[in-house]
C-alpha cells in the first residue's frame, strides 16, 4: 500500500458476525469408529466388499465401485503408518469453527496407516521441518481420557525414532 | 415450436422425505437416491455421461458443498458441476448439456437436509448486510408481508388460503414419499399458532430431509432406455427485483414472465386447457393462489375463487400438486427437482394412487430465494 | 435419549466476523441517518425514480444514479405483518411488525420495523414516522423503528 | 443440428487489489459488467441470461446471485443462475455459459465471476469447504494441502526451491505488463522470493498466491449474434471437466491426475496432438509456484518431473514456444470466484490480439485452466476461428 495515501482511520464498514451452529450427521460408520476409539482405543477403516480397498477415514461409499460399505465392512487398522508428506503451518488465520485465530505454528502431515489404501492428514508433534523426512514411521498418540472426538482423543501423530 | 433439440427424462428416483434423517450424512442420502436410480434403470455409473448437482453451501454447512458428494454421485474422474440453487435450475443446465450435444446422458441430483441447521438463520443470510439483514428478516416474515398485501388487495380470505393446505395435505396421503401424511381440516389451519400475520403455523411447510435424482438422455438413447420417455418441451426463467421494496408484492411478475416464455417455447396458449397437471413450489398457503394467477390458470386476483372452484383438485380440470407439494414435503433445495420428478411420473403413468388419468402435458415450477424472486418454469410432454 | 443423538452427530459451527465495505451510497445514507437524522434517496437520470434506500444502479434502466434527494421521515404503510416467532438474529423481542413503507418523496418502497404488535392497530395506507437511534452504530438499525402517527 | 458455435465477444475486468475500500460488492461487480457491455457494444437488455458465481462463505451472502445479478448486472426480469464449485468456480461459470449458448436456448449470455475476499478471509472460507469431522480441525485452508503437495512433488523429482521461485519471478514480471493484475513486480528477483518468510514449508510467502478482490465478466454469443457484434471474437473449441474423490487425500497428492484426464479429453476434441506445438499460449491456474511446474506436466507440456526443466529451457517464458501465464497468472492475482474466469478472459484476449504489452505474437489456439475443490481441473480451449 503506497505510504503517501492518507490512511482513513476507520473505513466505513458494515459488520456482521455470522454464527451458524450445525448439527452434522456423521453416519453409522463414523459412529462405530468413535465408539471403538473411545471404548477400545481402536482405529477403524472400511473395506470395500468388492475391490477390497481399505478406506481411512471409514465411509459408506467406495467411489471406485459405487458400492455401499456398512459397519460389517469395517476393519481395524494399526495406529502406525508412514509419513508421506509434511509441512509446518506458520501463518495466522481465523478458524471458522471458533471465530478466533488458530494457534500456530503447528506440524501438519500426510501419512498412510499400515493396511490402509488411502492417505490421511492430521497434526504431527514436530515444528522443525529438518526433523521430518518422507518415509519416517509415525504413530497415533492417544489422550489418556478418550471422549469420542478425533482431535481430542488423537491430538497428534508422533514420529517414531526407533521401531520395536 | 421453436428450434430447440430433443431431450428426455428416462427415469427418476426419490428418497422418503422425513423430518430428521439423523443416521445419514448428506452424501449417504445422495448415494441412496443415485443407487436407486441406477437400479431402477438397470444402468451403471459408466452409462452416466456427466452429473449436474444442486445444493446450498449455507444449508449444508460447507463451502463447495458438492465436494462432499463426488463419491456418491460417481463423478470421480468424470465431469460434474453444481448449480448453487434450486433443483429445477439444475435440471435445465443438465438438459442444456444434452442439447449442446456434449453428452448422451446427464444425471441431475439435488439434496437437502433441513435438520442440520436452523432454517430461519439460513434464510436470514439471503438478505443483504447493507439494508435488510440486521432487521432479522427471514422466509416467514417476508411471506407474511406478501400474503397480507395480496389478500388485502384482492380480498382473498384466510379460509381460501387454508383450502390450499387441506388440498395438498390430502393429496400427500397418496404419495408414499411425502413427509406429512395426515389429513387436516380448514379449522386446524385457522386455529394453528399465528406466525407472521395473517399466516399461521399450518400455512407454512415443514422442514424435511430428502434427495431426488433423474437421468436425462438424448433422443435415440432415451428411446432405447424406456418406452415412456418424458420430453422437455418448454423452459422459462425470470428473476424479480432483489429488494422487497422494489418488488410488486401482490403479483408474481417474475413467475408470470417465466411462464410466458415457457408457454411460448412449448406452443401453449391456453394453460388450463393445454396443461393436464402442474407441480408448483408453493412456499406458503397463499403463495399457491398467487401462483395460479401468475401461471395464467385464472385471472388476476381470482386465486381464492379458483381454489374454491375445485379445478385444482385431483379430479379438477387442472390438478395442482397431486404429490402434496412443498406444504407436505420441504427439503428446500430439492423442491424444484421434486416437482420435475413428479411431473415425469405423471406423464410416464407411474404415479400410482396419485396418478392423473392420461396426463399428456405437465408443468413444473421451481423457485429460488425469497418470495419467488428466482423462477424456473418447465413444460414436459408425454410424446 | 440426548446422548444417543449426540453420538450420531458432530456439533460444528461456521463463525466468521464479516466486515463489508459499505460503498459511497450505503455510507452516505447511514451516516446522514446517524448524524443528522435525515433520510436520503437517489434519483435515476433516465426514469427520474427516487430510490430509497439508495444504491448505485437503477435496476429498470441499468443506469448509474448520482443525484441525491432528501426524503421525508414519514411515509405510508403499503404492507405489514406482525411476527411472533423469535430467532437469534432478530433486533428486538417479538411480537413486532415489519412494514413496507413508501416514504414521502420516494418512488420505491423501503422495508423496516414498525413498533406495533397488534395487527388490528395496523392498516395499509396508515402513516408512520421514523424514530432515530440515540447512539447510532453504522447500520440500518440507526433508524430504530417506525411508529404509527 | 441444434448445436451452436460459441464465441467470447466482450470482456471486462476490474483492477484487482487486496482491498477495494471504495466500493461494495454489487458496485465492484458492476465495473466489470459495464466494461464487458461496452466492449461488446451491447445494450443491457440484449443480454438473454446471466451466469454468476462466487464462494458463499467468503462474503457470507446466501443466494448472492439474486443480489448481484440484479444490482450489479442487467438481471432484472431476466434469467440469473449461480454456479459455484470452489476454486474452479470461474471455469465452471465459463463452461455453464458455453452450454447455455451452444444448446440454442440463449443467443447472448453474460458470465460473471467475483470475490471480495477480504470481507471474510480466504483461509477461513476455504476451511469450511472440507469435512467438518475428519479434515476441518487440522486444515489450514488451501495452503496446507498445497504445501504437502509441493513437498512431495519436489522430493519425488528433486525440484529445488530456486526452480520453483523462478515461476513467481516469471509470472509477477509478466504481471507488470497486465494493467488488471494485483501484484506487479517488473524487477522481481529469485532472491526476493527465496528470502520471503516461510509460511508452510516448502512454501514461502512469495511462492503463494495473494488474496485479491475483484470481478471478471465475459459476454458470449452464438454464430449469428457474433457476426453482428465483432469480427474479432475468440471461439470455444473444447470445454472439459474432471473431478476426483471427495477426500483429496484418497490418492497420493504429489501431482494432479485430473489435469491429465481433462486435458486429454479437451485436446482430442480440439484436435491438439502435441500441446507445445499446437497451442500458442496457456493461462493455467497456479496457486503456488510449485503448482505451475507440476500442472505443466499434468497438462502434457512435458514428461513427469520435467516441469522445472521446461521452465529453465525458457519454453514457457514470454519468448518461448508456449508462453504460460502472460497475464501474471494466479500467483499475481487471485480473486477466487473470478480467478478461473480470468484465465478464460486472458486466453480470449490473446486470441483477439488485444494483449498489448503482454500479447504473445500470432495466437491461434489458447488453453485456459481452472483448479480447485479436491484436486479438480477444468480445461477450456479457444481458437481464432470456429472449430472445423
Please tell me about this protein's structure.
The complex is a heterotetramer of chains A (164), B (383), C (149) and D (388). Chain A is mainly β and 164 residues long. Chain A is 10% helix and 37% strand. In chain A, the strands form three sheets. In chain A, strands 9-8-7-10-11 form a five-stranded antiparallel beta sheet, with no helix packed on it. Chain A has a three-stranded antiparallel beta sheet with strand order 3-2-6, covered by helices on one side. In chain A, strands 4-5 form a two-stranded antiparallel ribbon. By secondary structure, chain B is α/β, with parallel strands linked by helices. Chain B has two domains: 7-117 and 208-225, Peroxisomal Thiolase, Chain A, domain 1, CATH 3.40.47.10; 119-206 and 231-381, Thiolase/Chalcone synthase (Peroxisomal Thiolase, Chain A, domain 1). Chain B is built from 14 helices and eleven strands. Chain B has helices at residues 26-41, 57-60, 70-73, 87-99, 119-124, 139-154, 158-172, 186-191, 219-225, 253-266, 271-274, 285-294, 303-308, 335-348; strands at residues 7-14, 50-54, 80-83, 105-113, 194-196, 199-200, 209-218, 230-239, 277-280, 361-368, 374-381. Chain B has a nine-stranded mixed beta sheet with strand order 3-2-4-7-1-8-11-10-9. The radius of gyration of chain B is 19 Å and the shape is globular. Chain C has one domain (18-148). Chain C has helices spanning 2-8, 23-36; strands at residues 9-21, 39-43, 50-51, 57-58, 63-64, 67-71, 74-83, 96-103, 110-114, 127-132, 143-148. The longest helix of chain C is centred in the N-terminal third of the chain and has 14 residues, at 23-36. The N and C termini of chain C lie far apart (53 Å). The mean pLDDT of chain C is 95. Chain D is built from 15 helices and eleven strands. Chain D has helices at 25-40, 56-59, 64-71, 89-102, 122-127, 143-157, 161-175, 190-194, 223-229, 257-270, 275-278, 289-298, 307-312, 329-332, 336-352, and strands spanning 6-13, 49-53, 80-82, 108-116, 198-200, 203-204, 213-222, 234-242, 281-283, 365-372, 376-383. In chain D, 37% of the residues lie in helices and 18% in strands. In chain D, helix 4 crosses helix 15 and helix 7 crosses helix 12. In chain D, 73% of the residues are buried. Chain D is globular, with a radius of gyration of 19 Å. In chain D, strand 5 (198-200) and strand 6 form a beta hairpin. Chain D has a domain at 6-122 and 211-229: Thiolase/Chalcone synthase (Peroxisomal Thiolase, Chain A, domain 1, 3-Layer(aba) Sandwich), CATH 3.40.47. A nine-stranded mixed beta sheet of chain D has the order 3-2-4-7-1-8-11-10-9, with helices on both faces. A two-stranded antiparallel ribbon of chain D has the order 5-6. The chains are: A mainly beta (164), B alpha/beta (383), C mainly beta (149), D alpha/beta (388). Chains in contact: A-B, A-C, A-D, B-C, B-D, C-D. Chain C binds chain D through residues 10, 12, 14, 16, 18-26, 55-57, 59-60, 62, and chain D through 19-27, 30, 44-45, 57, 59-60, 70-72, 74, 76, 116, 119-121, 124-125, 128, 132-133, 136.
Amino acid at each position: 500500500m503506497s505510504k503517501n495515501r492518507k490512511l482513513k482511520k476507520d473505513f466505513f464498514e458494515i459488520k456482521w458476525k455470522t454464527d451458524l451452529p450445525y448439527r452434522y450427521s456423521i453416519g453409522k460408520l463414523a459412529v462405530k469408529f468413535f465408539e471403538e476409539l473411545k471404548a477400545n482405543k481402536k482405529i477403524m477403516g472400511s473395506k470395500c466388499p468388492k475391490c477390497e480397498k481399505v478406506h481411512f477415514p471409514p465411509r459408506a461409499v467406495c467411489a471406485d465401485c459405487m458400492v455401499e460399505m456398512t459397519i460389517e465392512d469395517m476393519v481395524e487398522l494399526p495406529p502406525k503408518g508412514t509419513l508421506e508428506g509434511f509441512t509446518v503451518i506458520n501463518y495466522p488465520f481465523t478458524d471458522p469453527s471458533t471465530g478466533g485465530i488458530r494457534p500456530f505454528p503447528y506440524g501438519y502431515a500426510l501419512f498412510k496407516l499400515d493396511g490402509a489404501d488411502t492417505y490421511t492428514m492430521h497434526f504431527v508433534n514436530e515444528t522443525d521441518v529438518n526433523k521430518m523426512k518422507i518415509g519416517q514411521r509415525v504413530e497415533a498418540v492417544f489422550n489418556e481420557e478418550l471422549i469420542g472426538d478425533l482431535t481430542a482423543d488423537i491430538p497428534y501423530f508422533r514420529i517414531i525414532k526407533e521401531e520395536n | 415450436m421453436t428450434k430447440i433439440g430433443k431431450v428426455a427424462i428416462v427415469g427418476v428416483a426419490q428418497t422418503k422425505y422425513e423430518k430428521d434423517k439423523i443416521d445419514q450424512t448428506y452424501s449417504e442420502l445422495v448415494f441412496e437416491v443415485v443407487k436407486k436410480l441406477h437400479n431402477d434403470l438397470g444402468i451403471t455409473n459408466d452409462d452416466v455421461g456427466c452429473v449436474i448437482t444442486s445444493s446450498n453451501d449455507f444449508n449444508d454447512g460447507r463451502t463447495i458443498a458438492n465436494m462432499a458428494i463426488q463419491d456418491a454421485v460417481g463423478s470421480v474422474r468424470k465431469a460434474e458441476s453444481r448449480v448453487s440453487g434450486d433443483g429445477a435450475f439444475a435440471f435445465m443446465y443438465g438438459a442444456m448439456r444434452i442439447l449442446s450435444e456434449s453428452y448422451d446422458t446427464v444425471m441431475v441430483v439435488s439434496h437437502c437436509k433441513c435438520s442440520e441447521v436452523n432454517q430461519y438463520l439460513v434464510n436470514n443470510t439471503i438478505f443483504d448486510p447493507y439494508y435488510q439483514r440486521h432487521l432479522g428478516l427471514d422466509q416467514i416474515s417476508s411471506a407474511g408481508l406478501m400474503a397480507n398485501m395480496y389478500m388485502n388487495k384482492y380480498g382473498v380470505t384466510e379460509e381460501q388460503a387454508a383450502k390450499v393446505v387441506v388440498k395438498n395435505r390430502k393429496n400427500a396421503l397418496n404419495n408414499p414419499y411425502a413427509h406429512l401424511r395426515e389429513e387436516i381440516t380448514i379449522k386446524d389451519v385457522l386455529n394453528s399458532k399465528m406466525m407472521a400475520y395473517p399466516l399461521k403455523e399450518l400455512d407454512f411447510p415443514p422442514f424435511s430431509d430428502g434427495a431426488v435424482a433423474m437421468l436425462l438422455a438424448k433422443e435415440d438413447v432415451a428411446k432405447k432406455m424406456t418406452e415412456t420417455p418424458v420430453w422437455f418441451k418448454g423452459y422459462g426463467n425470470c428473476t424479480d427485483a432483489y429488494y422487497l421494496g422494489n418488488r410488486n408484492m401482490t403479483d408474481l411478475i417474475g413467475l408470470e414472465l417465466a411462464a410466458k416464455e415457457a408457454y411460448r417455447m412449448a406452443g401453449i396458449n391456453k394453460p388450463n386447457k393445454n396443461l393436464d397437471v402442474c407441480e408448483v413450489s408453493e412456499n406458503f398457503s397463499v403463495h399457491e393462489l398467487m401462483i395460479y394467477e401468475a401461471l395464467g390458470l385464472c385471472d388476476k386476483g381470482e386465486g381464492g375463487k379458483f381454489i374454491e372452484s375445485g379445478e385444482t383438485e385431483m379430479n379438477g380440470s387442472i390438478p395442482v400438486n397431486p404429490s402434496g407439494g412443498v406444504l407436505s414435503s420441504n427439503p428446500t433445495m430439492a423442491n424444484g427437482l421434486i416437482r420435475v420428478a413428479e411431473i415425469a411420473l405423471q406423464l410416464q403413468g407411474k404415479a400410482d394412487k396419485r396418478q392423473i388419468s392420461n396426463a399428456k402435458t405437465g408443468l413444473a415450477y421451481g423457485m429460488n430465494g425469497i418470495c419467488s424472486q428466482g423462477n424456473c418454469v418447465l413444460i414436459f410432454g408425454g410424446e | 435419549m440426548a446422548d444417543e443423538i449426540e453420538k450420531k452427530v458432530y456439533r460444528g459451527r461456521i463463525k466468521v466476523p464479516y466486515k463489508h465495505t459499505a460503498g459511497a451510497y450505503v455510507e452516505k445514507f447511514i451516516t446522514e441517518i446517524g448524524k443528522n437524522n435525515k433520510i436520503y434517496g437517489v434519483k435515476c437520470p433516465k426514469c427520474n425514480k427516487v430510490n430509497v434506500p439508495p444504491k448505485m444502479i437503477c435496476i429498470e434502466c441499468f443506469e448509474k444514479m448520482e443525484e441525491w434527494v432528501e426524503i421525508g421521515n414519514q411515509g405510508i404503510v403499503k404492507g405489514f405483518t406482525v411476527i411472533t416467532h423469535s430467532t437469534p438474529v432478530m433486533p428486538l423481542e417479538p411480537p413486532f411488525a415489519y412494514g413496507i413503507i413508501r416514504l414521502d418523496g420516494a418512488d420505491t418502497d423501503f422495508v423496516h420495523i414498525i413498533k406495533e404488535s397488534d395487527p388490528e392497530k395496523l392498516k395499509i395506507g396508515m402513516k408512520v414516522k421514523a424514530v432515530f437511534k440515540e447512539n447510532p452504530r453504522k447500520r440500518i438499525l440507526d433508524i430504530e423503528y417506525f411508529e404509527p402517527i | 443440428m441444434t448445436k451452436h458455435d460459441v464465441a467470447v465477444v466482450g470482456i471486462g475486468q476490474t483492477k484487482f487489489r487486496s482491498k477495494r475500500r471504495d466500493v461494495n460488492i454489487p458496485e465492484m461487480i458492476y465495473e466489470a459488467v459495464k466494461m464487458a457491455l461496452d466492449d461488446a457494444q451491447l445494450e443491457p437488455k440484449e443480454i438473454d441470461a446471466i451466469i454468476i458465481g462466487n464462494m458463499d462463505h467468503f462474503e457470507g451472502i446466501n443466494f448472492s446471485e439474486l443480489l448481484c445479478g440484479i444490482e450489479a448486472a442487467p438481471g432484472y426480469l431476466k434469467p440469473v443462475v449461480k454456479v459455484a464449485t470452489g476454486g474452479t468456480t470461474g471455469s465452471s461459470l465459463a463452461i455453464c455459459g458455453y452450454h447455455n449458448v451452444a444448446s440454442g436456448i440463449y443467443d447472448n449470455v453474460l458470465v460473471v465471476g467475483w470475490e471480495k475476499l477480504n470481507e471474510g478471509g480466504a483461509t477461513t472460507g476455504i476451511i469450511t469447504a472440507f469435512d467438518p469431522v475428519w479434515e476441518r480441525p487440522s486444515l489450514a485452508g488451501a495452503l496446507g494441502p498445497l504445501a504437502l503437495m509441493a513437498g512431495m512433488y519436489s522430493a519425488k523429482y528433486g525440484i529445488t526451491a530456486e526452480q520453483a521461485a523462478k515461476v513467481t519471478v516469471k509470472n509477477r514480471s509478466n504481471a507488470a505488463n497486465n494493467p488488471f493484475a494485483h501484484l506487479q513486480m517488473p524487477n522481481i528477483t529469485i532472491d526476493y522470493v527465496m528470502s520471503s518468510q516461510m509460511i508452510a514449508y516448502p512454501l514461502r510467502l512469495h511462492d503463494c498466491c495473494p488474496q485479491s478482490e475483484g470481478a471478471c465478466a465475459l459476454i458470449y454469443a452464438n454464430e449469428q449474434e457474433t457476426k453482428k457484434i465483432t469480427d474479432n471474437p475468440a471461439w470455444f473449441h473444447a470445454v472439459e471437466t474432471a473431478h476426483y474423490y471427495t477426500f483429496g487425500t484418497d490418492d497420493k497428492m504429489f501431482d494432479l491426475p485430473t489435469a491429465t484426464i481433462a486435458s486429454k479429453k479437451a485436446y482430442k476434441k480440439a484436435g491438439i496432438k502435441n500441446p507445445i506445438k499446437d497451442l500458442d499460449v496457456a493461462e493455467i491456474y497456479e496457486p503456488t509456484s510449485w503448482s505451475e511446474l507440476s500442472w505443466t506436466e499434468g497438462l502434457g507440456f512435458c514428461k513427469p518431473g520435467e516441469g522445472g526443466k521446461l521452465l529453465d529451457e525458457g519454453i514457457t517464458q514470454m519468448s518461448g514456444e508456449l508462453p504460460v501465464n502472460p497475464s501474471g497468472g494466479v500467483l499475481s492475482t487471485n480473486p477466487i470466484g473470478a480467478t478461473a474466469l480470468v484465465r478464460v478472459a486472458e486466453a480470449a484476449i490473446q486470441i483477439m490480439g488485444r494483449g498489448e504489452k503482454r500479447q504473445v505474437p500470432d495466437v491461434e489456439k489458447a488453453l485456459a485452466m481452472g483448479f480447485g475443490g479436491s484436486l479438480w481441473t477444468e480445461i477450456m480451449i479457444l481458437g481464432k476461428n470456429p472449430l472445423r
